[in-house]
């Protein structure tokens, strides 16, 4: 099977994961996922595997196989896994769960390598571009930085007490971090390197982005430069695109009929894929703000999407 240069996958409450031809909108592979619903999808940097975070497992599927069976299962979480991602070379995976933990998994060895206690349901985890810090956000409103070198929590922030941090995103160069919460607010910090190796958060902006929940916030990728955008996906059925220079509203993407749960930029930032409770995923042109493709096939809420249309990392 020839490997597609663009890998696009979605998952739904209908207990399936679907792979799509991004241009044509054709679904070419469906994986049944009977164990639970899938909360999050992520593709490995080398485009070989798709991780599906469910309750309470993470399953790894071979992107280039037609086998419905996962090649690997990661099983030590005890509740919904809400976040999953990979280190840049694909050597290890991180996850965050409603069981209150953040975990690290070595992909070349079975079992969980490390565990950090957040003491509240973890909704979101991102890896700092320096590859040595994980940043998590939880249901009680805490943001924590986990220093993987020192193996400890190096920083704690509470932007708004008792307001769940729903989504976190870090700029590709490590200069900004954005946290989105259940009140439709985004908190933006500059990330400064202190005299120690520790990252310091300097408050930069507070953005009232939506009246409803923000379910996902995402900063644009490196190849989008010199434009820098923040996308916010909301329960108000829209995605808003903000210019990071001043946080002015550039565009509102309208077309979804229900909550928009997830979004992901193409590698050059020219397109955005979104996933919604209206059962569809959509491909948007960032230049026009129009949806140019609708991916239809799921028959319940589509809650997450993953896209990898970039080059594979060169072997270091």
UniProtKB/TrEMBL annotation:
What keywords sit in the KW lines?
Endosome, Repeat, WD repeat
What are the GO BP annotations of this UniProt entry?
regulation of actin cytoskeleton organization; TOR signaling
Please state where this protein is localized. Answer: Endosome
- Name the PROSITE patterns for this protein: WD_REPEATS_1, WD_REPEATS_2, WD_REPEATS_REGION
InterPro entries this protein is in? MLST8, Quinoprotein_ADH-like_sf, WD40/YVTN_repeat-like_dom_sf, WD40_PAC1, WD40_repeat_CS, WD40_rpt
Pfam families, alphabetically? WD40
GO cellular component annotations, sorted alphabetically?
A: endosome; TORC1 complex; TORC2 complex
Placement of WD repeats on the sequence: 1-30, 74-108, 115-156, 207-252, 253-294
Q: Subunit info?
A: The target of rapamycin complex 1 (TORC1) is composed of at least RAPTOR, LST8 and TOR.
Describe its function. Component of TORC1 complex, which is an essential cell growth regulator that controls plant development. Acts by activating transcription, protein synthesis and ribosome biogenesis, and inhibiting mRNA degradation and autophagy.
Q: Which family does it belong to?
A: Belongs to the WD repeat LST8 family.
The name this protein carries in UniProt is Target of rapamycin complex subunit LST8
Traced from the root, the source organism's taxonomic lineage reads: Eukaryota, Viridiplantae, Streptophyta, Embryophyta, Tracheophyta
